[in-house]
Amino acid sequence: MDDILDRFAQGELTREQARKALVSLGCAQVAVGRLDTGRLERTGQPEVVFCQGKTPDQVAIAMQGLYAHHGRALGTRADADQFAAVEALLPDCEYDPVSSVLRAGNTMETIDGKPAVAVISAGTADLPVAEEAARCAAFLGCRVERYHDCGVAGLHRLLDVRADLEQAGAVIAVAGMDGAMASVLGGLSAVPVVAVPTSVGYGAAFDGLAPLLSMLNACAPGVAVVNIDNGFGAAAFAARIVRGASRE
Amino acid sequence: MDDILDRFAQGELTREQARKALVSLGCAQVAVGRLDTGRLERTGQPEVVFCQGKTPDQVAIAMQGLYAHHGRALGTRADADQFAAVEALLPDCEYDPVSSVLRAGNTMETIDGKPAVAVISAGTADLPVAEEAARCAAFLGCRVERYHDCGVAGLHRLLDVRADLEQAGAVIAVAGMDGAMASVLGGLSAVPVVAVPTSVGYGAAFDGLAPLLSMLNACAPGVAVVNIDNGFGAAAFAARIVRGASRE
Amino acid sequence: MDDILDRFAQGELTREQARKALVSLGCAQVAVGRLDTGRLERTGQPEVVFCQGKTPDQVAIAMQGLYAHHGRALGTRADADQFAAVEALLPDCEYDPVSSVLRAGNTMETIDGKPAVAVISAGTADLPVAEEAARCAAFLGCRVERYHDCGVAGLHRLLDVRADLEQAGAVIAVAGMDGAMASVLGGLSAVPVVAVPTSVGYGAAFDGLAPLLSMLNACAPGVAVVNIDNGFGAAAFAARIVRGASRE
Amino acid sequence: MDDILDRFAQGELTREQARKALVSLGCAQVAVGRLDTGRLERTGQPEVVFCQGKTPDQVAIAMQGLYAHHGRALGTRADADQFAAVEALLPDCEYDPVSSVLRAGNTMETIDGKPAVAVISAGTADLPVAEEAARCAAFLGCRVERYHDCGVAGLHRLLDVRADLEQAGAVIAVAGMDGAMASVLGGLSAVPVVAVPTSVGYGAAFDGLAPLLSMLNACAPGVAVVNIDNGFGAAAFAARIVRGASRE
Amino acid sequence: MDDILDRFAQGELTREQARKALVSLGCAQVAVGRLDTGRLERTGQPEVVFCQGKTPDQVAIAMQGLYAHHGRALGTRADADQFAAVEALLPDCEYDPVSSVLRAGNTMETIDGKPAVAVISAGTADLPVAEEAARCAAFLGCRVERYHDCGVAGLHRLLDVRADLEQAGAVIAVAGMDGAMASVLGGLSAVPVVAVPTSVGYGAAFDGLAPLLSMLNACAPGVAVVNIDNGFGAAAFAARIVRGASRE
Amino acid sequence: MDDILDRFAQGELTREQARKALVSLGCAQVAVGRLDTGRLERTGQPEVVFCQGKTPDQVAIAMQGLYAHHGRALGTRADADQFAAVEALLPDCEYDPVSSVLRAGNTMETIDGKPAVAVISAGTADLPVAEEAARCAAFLGCRVERYHDCGVAGLHRLLDVRADLEQAGAVIAVAGMDGAMASVLGGLSAVPVVAVPTSVGYGAAFDGLAPLLSMLNACAPGVAVVNIDNGFGAAAFAARIVRGASRE
Amino acid sequence: MDDILDRFAQGELTREQARKALVSLGCAQVAVGRLDTGRLERTGQPEVVFCQGKTPDQVAIAMQGLYAHHGRALGTRADADQFAAVEALLPDCEYDPVSSVLRAGNTMETIDGKPAVAVISAGTADLPVAEEAARCAAFLGCRVERYHDCGVAGLHRLLDVRADLEQAGAVIAVAGMDGAMASVLGGLSAVPVVAVPTSVGYGAAFDGLAPLLSMLNACAPGVAVVNIDNGFGAAAFAARIVRGASRE
Amino acid sequence: MDDILDRFAQGELTREQARKALVSLGCAQVAVGRLDTGRLERTGQPEVVFCQGKTPDQVAIAMQGLYAHHGRALGTRADADQFAAVEALLPDCEYDPVSSVLRAGNTMETIDGKPAVAVISAGTADLPVAEEAARCAAFLGCRVERYHDCGVAGLHRLLDVRADLEQAGAVIAVAGMDGAMASVLGGLSAVPVVAVPTSVGYGAAFDGLAPLLSMLNACAPGVAVVNIDNGFGAAAFAARIVRGASRE
Fold first, then answer.
1. CA of B245, closest CA in chain A: separation in Å?
2. Going from the N-terminus, what domains does chain G have, and what CATH number goes with each?
3. I need a labelling partner for B79 at 20 to 30 A (CA). Which of B109, D206, D214, F43 fits?
4. CA B39, B45, B49, B52 torsion: positive or negative?
5. Of D124, D131, D204, the CB nearest to G33
6. How many other C-beta atoms lie within 10 A of the C-beta of residue B6?
7. What chains are in contact with H, requiring at least 3 Cβ pairs below 8 Å?
8. Which of the residues in chain H have pLDDT under 70?
9. Chain F closest-CA separation from residue B128 CA (Å)
């Protein structure tokens, strides 16, 4: 492998030849997945790299491949080493350590006349997930509004922003512990509430099981739920809603 | 209580007086909840009666109260006895035994220019939940399209309807067992997929836990989940999406 | 056994002799437990009969024994057959079919200057548990106030009664599904909130697991939790609080 | 942001100015939550900072904000780094490494005539949670008594302190493994028992699930439960009880 | 099948021929299992029929087969129909409806000099399981002593019998809900405590999971646990202990 | 619907016209699924009707449709009413009440030179699942051998049949409770062991969870697992194995 | 604290004064539990120190206290730092890194005429738990025999030692994964089998849940279960059995 | 033991002699398991070393023992330290860091005329498990084909390789998250699908529980499941299938 890289550095191999050579070493050494470059056409959203559990090289090659095809690429749950590997290939890559989101290239175009995605979170510890949702939604071409620290323990904070939320095309509600924010929101507004339970909490929170069950059983209609800590999933779902919506 | 009803029947008590008298017997005997008649204004959707676990009288009084206010009323998870009690008060009430949905009065107006809600289900045993979703969505003013028996065991059935689904404003995907339909749909289209796990199955399906977890972990973006067997919740959520959407 | 009963009926055996004779037949036939008549002195509250899973005879003998000792007796989760068996021995027994509570004799004395116990419930289906709490608290000498149908799906209903709750010595909050009412109450008032999750709901409510976990993870302080559907436990706990409290 | 840091490094900005400038960049970069300073008035207890999962800076800014408003501030689940960050801003801050509690300023006033909060724990490993409860109750203005190492494996230790506990306004019972201490206490005294299951144990203790379930099913009345390891929650609840109680 | 039975009744077929003919009808119709008649020799205890889920015929044939071999037979979790079918073949069969135990023939010989098995239970509802344990232990040749209604909610009841328990060779402790009795017993005596969690309780008892976990985590040594409601298993285990023990 | 049936009975409608008319009444009334008649070609096995949860009419129409296409049809988890409805349409239908299997037409051809499928079960209560496996495997063209009542509590029973099992192409091992049979078999032979956990047992068997987990963790290699009580699934899987195998 | 220790070393403080002074430093600093020195008299076995989660100082002081009283002390789940702290106070302390058992002083006397405790384990990874059981049993005065690597994947290994096991007074069976060894042993011998599930395995072993459930559902009688990885508990229980037993 | 080490340090003992001497001190110090060298004859597959949780020495000795007997040895879940220890004894040992598989000696002979084992995986993160399956199958004498990155989010990737899979003797399907790949494969082909759920994912994937349940509930027949992340188990099972199969 060093050999291939040396030859590529010395110009004996083109980038394409080098990559092929690397891949032909077998998946056990390099493990470049098959990129699903057709996903943008099928679903309106390009493939996004889930970085957790991948090596920096795997992340970098995947980001590069998507960037080459779409002119932009997004990675979630990235760490600093993965960022370094990507930045070496794609210098315009940016990394947000709070949300662990990695972005190369611009966000998708924001379409005029579409309502915003509102991201509302309960406590400071929910911020990484909320920011993942916000940054992914922005990447997917949504206008994003943020409302942090609005948990129901201080109900006035939620009631204060109620009118603002009502203008959104979709609300992403991020909360751990009791997950009660989703139910309260569902009963206060007509906007679809995409609930994201977080693993914030301890003990009988069981790593997010408590807010997950609470949100699935929201006593107010108008709430649907994504996986625990899945800010990206909420963003992708909300972007699908907003893409079909018009500002009222 | 018979006394109050007799006096009401003989005109000695107005309906209002009769109801108050009934209520004043104490909640332990009659248990009429406080109707949330302001919900329509707040959320765009009237309160719906969850009939399971209520007595026929409780259901009937709640349906009557909502009907009086909104000119229509919907009940879910109703049985034949509850239907009989409601029909006695509201003769234009209809009952669908497959979905256990009870409806008095017309559905809400369908707004022009809004895309349809597509309800797609995996197997025959998922039909009651799918029909609950379909009928509730219709009540809430959505155009509804039904695609039954499209489970991934015979993948062609799903691929056959793919183009139709793409025109919808939201897809409600109803499946038990492995819940795999939601993931496949999420990867094939750009429409938001509202997934409803059902309690269909046995053994390690654990009354719907298997498809619930599977859908929450859908490997394709664009999927959000409601409670097990919660056809109504999926409909209310989809109606919120469609209300803000325009047909493209 | 018939022999003993006949001889008792004919006066050959005193009631005491008859009971001893019955008991000496062996526990497999009669199974009268050892009554814990010292509990009143130790804990300020007499033993209460948990009727579920006992035969009508077992319930009747236990109620009679406690009544003989304390001049009053309470049974929870009783059914009509058990009531009939008790009523045959204790004619002043009353039965409430909503809460399944059985009471013989008067409630304990209400002590002057103690604040009330407020029982607040989320929906109509929570009523049986709420009434169990209310009736047990009353039996234990508390003044009781009831606030039904105050779930957070219509938040105004909860905010409406906020000032009233603040006067109570303890609030018993009864809710199923998302259990969000406990969190909201905890953040709005200074009164201890005793939360009772109920088995109301379906699917991922998992027979009360969802509100149980939600309430244990209440994001607002001031909430403690009893077992699912345990109205009696909440009442006994609240009565301990109020017994030590003075109205402010 | 680099700009701010450069100017701070060159002395153009004081640390305080730099931090403020960073905060004004918005929550996504620095994440200062909205403090709920009205909580003291609403609930009789000020907001307390849950430090786990927050950065030292986030903790320090939150503690400072609360201290500025209330003249005191409490943090739970803090580590040494967080303490260092707080101490830099609030020199009178104290840190207890056993309970991980951080306190700046004095405890609230102890009101005359109120009974004490008794904290009783089962084993040495339960000490951190018991101390969290004790220190938080003291901060909230309670007199606190401690009884450590009283698990039921040596029942005499519990019986020895029984008379002392009876004088308390509330007992906080801290135990892991079988959680049996709560049941035994509930049957021995008339004081409300606030049970705290701990994650002490291994295997089928399932990180506190075993004592949690055991305490929720206490066969003696008079027991209510808070989250696993939640010493603070027990203290806040007990303080609400004692605040309304008078010494008898 | 009637044909075979008629021919057997008329002596045309021996019992052996009849049984073989019945079996050869195929397992779907008769389903006589292979009796493990060597178990007595291997383990000191004969096979016992677990009746639940078997047809009356299956139970009767199995009991008859064991009776023919050993001169006695025991069945657990039997109902009245199964009893009737057995009684038709084995007229000296007895049935105890409290424990659902079926016994044909005498109990095994009690060996001199062996200590007793003490069965202690917490509440009236635990009686069926306790009696199953008691009757099975008696069948296996143990002297049995019973102590009912000794739950820790009234601790004196347990302390009262402590000296008696100390004389036993093994204590079978039967309790539901919090299962705390096992821990308390383990710390009070030197006798092995075989704990049987029961499904008595509701809500977060989760059908016996709460006492099962509590007993597995008993903070006092000397406790081992069998399956929920498994009175028979506790008896078989205790009988193995006592068989090797001598009265001290 | 009666109208359509009458007209069909009087010959005014062909069977095909009648069915179409019935279907056009809408799925809520009749609910005939889309039959996957191509499954035989794709997978070598025709679709099989899972009868549980379907109405007798739904079962009958599905069986008839498959029979019309393939000349045979199989239904699992059928009850007597469903059998009656099928028999009315397909007189050569047979029903086995032990396994609840319904079969119309002959089994598929047994291919020469293929090894048998051996079905081995642990106890009498496992028989229904074992028979479902055996009958489904026979329907799918396998030679089937049955070994009942071979649980490891009497290990000799398993060792006795070891040599026979070794000749099979696949072993289906059916056991509840501890599920230990699968592990023992995996270590004794070279044949693939398809393990079927059953819901036989009680308490901590948790409806089959115990043997499911045990079998998934079999310490001997060569074991794979299907769903709890899924005799059909094991048969379909074993038939795929045997179809590709040659007798050795 | 050093000051107190120095003064004690120089004789200015008695041991008692020193300990009191140490304790008066406050539980947060030293946290010496109340030793249960009466346990030996009550239960025949001295208290044993569970080291996990305690500081080296806490372990050392507890070991020293027990050693002072009994002339011996045992600690389980100790690490090297705790050993070092104990060794500094008690130079004759020994540490076994495989089982993490710490022992100071001799084992208890082995009583003549008592049968041995046999410890049998399934695989190499179960060795730490098996050794904890063996060493604890030896400390409690039992003769101990070890049989390692006897899992049912190679059944002959278990059958080979069967005759030896039959001579024991109790068998401690240590196994993870499927836990099948307990069931097989229960059916082969008349000796009580104390089963210890271990956390050996991965995935659906769920940290020992799989063998725990499997062992609780052992299809052979004569098996009781202790907590996952609880070698000490099994030893304490087996020692109670053997203490009452005579060699046959 | 110190003695042995000293003599080894001084050259009086070779490393080999030292290790043997250490082993002879007994299992508590070194813990060499009993190798099951008869397994190859019984099951057609030699014992394989599960390295996780073993010391490098334990792994090395076990690998050496098996190598000495069979001329080859395989280890799974090995790390670099274990590899180093093995390599010191067996220089022809190879280690694959992706799958953590260790192999000494050649793979078993591939038998002519047997179909291949196809390993198909969903995403890059599933690669380690897929490679474990592939390398173990190869070791056991199977021809292996690999198809990576074929998850259903991009369904075309799966459909593209469908024809290739149909030629295999068994398909090993490796997927985490929703596990939907197994169901889709089961409905598309006639080859037995051995499904391996992986722990890839987060939140409600619950470390592989979600795909495990999903695969156990596959709506398409022809799927059986092994433990989470158990690539080796799938390979051993598939090798048993292929060993009995002939290429068609």
1. 4
2. 6-104 (no CATH), 117-243 (3.40.50.1970)
3. B109
4. negative
5. D124
6. 11
7. A, B, F, G
8. 1-2, 4-6, 8-9, 15-33, 247-248
9. 8
